[in-house]
Amino acid sequence: MPSAAQSVTVIGLGPMGQAMAAAYLDRGYEVTLWNRTPARADALVARGATLAPTVEQALAANELTILSLTDFDAMYAILEPAKDAVAGRTLVNLSSDTPEKARAGARWVTDLGGTHLTGGVLCPPPLIGTPDTSTFYSGPREAYDKHRATLEVITGKSDYRGEDQGLAALMYQLNMFIFWPAMIAYWQAVAVAGAHGIKATEIAPYVTENFAGMGHFIDFYASRIDEGIHTGEVDRTSMGLASMEHVVHTAADAGVDTAFPEAVHDIFRRVVAAGHGADSFSRAVELIRKS
Ligand code: NDP
After folding, report:
1. Closest CA to 124 of 74, 67, 176, 64
2. Do 69 and 35 contact (CB within 8 A), yes or no?
3. Do residues 98 and 37 both lie within one domain?
4. Is 109 close to ligand 1, i.e. is its CB under 6 Å away?
5. Can you give the pLDDT at residue 291?
6. What is the CATH number of the domain that holds 240?
7. Mean pLDDT in the chain?
8. Domain match, 158 and 18 both
């Protein structure tokens, strides 16, 4: 078996797994692959990777296996029939799922005699293998330390969150709470702009500026929220409610879907109905917590 520092197995060849395997090939690693749909390995095999004929052989090829799958259920689907091959192997599961699913998956691997690290990758496939990207990890510190150099081929930085296997999944999901709705908010603006004959490329600079400015809001609110301060000197919820009404009506007037802005509007409405119209709209955190 080649040394763990120079060879790796990648199971799961969606866009992420393919990018990870390509990054390892770029760095001169010996790469063994397995995927449910073998044809997804073709380009990587042409570059020198080895497609293992069975999951057992993929696991046997290296101490370290990266799993890049849709979710943890896919891990069971793949490894259950090959579970005798898990003992003695280290599996780094970079598949998205809930913290509870990550903890259960880690227990399952550990009970089979393997070692499990949970990971959550914070960049899209085209940025895999680049230095200014990061991945959360959690699980046994010893395994993380041992394989850190190999893991930092995938993203240049890694953020070890502790022994609890659920923590990396939690930190990843916290980012997804921001990412998906933020992108849908952008699609919403694109749809309204389009209804007025304005292209996505035309508003792109303003959207980028808007997202870039979000850091100032986070800086302002984070410590206030931790301290329970929701005074509304500059950002009263009643103002937010009126503003969200304008947003919903602008969408309706443009003839586009209003479900997303209506959901946001409903949160403002409930904060005001609870008697907090004069407070900062950060008061919504308390409402969400209670929900
Ligand atoms: P995909 O969902 O496209 O990849 C799916 C992979 O999982 C494929 O290899 C697929 O096999 C395999 N798979 C799914 N279900 C099963 C099953 N039941 N049995 C066997 N194999 C299965 O995801 P991505 O490659 O885009 O991402 C991988 C992970 O990384 C996901 O958890 C995603 O949330 C996360 N992630 C993705 C990012 C992105 O931008 N794409 C960014 C950050 C994280 P097959 O090829 O046969 O279908």
Report:
1. 176
2. no
3. yes
4. no
5. 58
6. 1.10.1040.10
7. 96
8. yes
